[in-house]
Specification:
single chain, four-stranded antiparallel sheet, mainly beta, 51% strand
């Protein structure tokens, strides 16, 4: 079992970059599918990026071309590189782990990203 722990959230200006990290307290991510979700105040939770155990990646249209998901198995860490940040990217960002790419989900506690114009 994993316990995702996110870090890297901050307050930045529009146009700047941030890299979020999601370390595993517990099992390795090697055979997991992983995803990043976000939730802004008053809005539904949104899945924005995912990577499977063969490193295939997918992105929501809202972040495609600006965000990059990656996974370092040696460091047992998932990343989200966020470039050209916009005020509408302001949200709590969550890392989610899916063991064996099944339906079980392990969520982290979230890390806050705030983008000001």
């Amino acid at each position: 079992q994993v316990q995702p722990v996110e870090s890297g959230g901050a307050s930045v200006q529009a146009g700047e970059s941030l890299r979020l990290s999601c370390a595993s307290a517990g099992d390795t991510y090697r055979n997991y599918c992983m995803a990043w979700f976000r939730q802004a105040p008053g809005k539904d939770r949104e899945g924005i990026a995912a990577i499977n155990n063969k490193y295939a990646k997918g992105y929501a249209n809202s972040v495609k071309g600006r965000f990059t998901i990656s996974k370092d198995n040696a460091k047992n860490t998932l990343y989200l590189q966020m470039n050209s940040l916009k005020p509408e990217d302001t949200a709590m960002y969550y890392c989610v782990a899916y063991p064996g790419c099944g339906t079980t989900q392990y969520w982290g506690q979230g890390t806050q990203v705030t983008v000001s114009s």
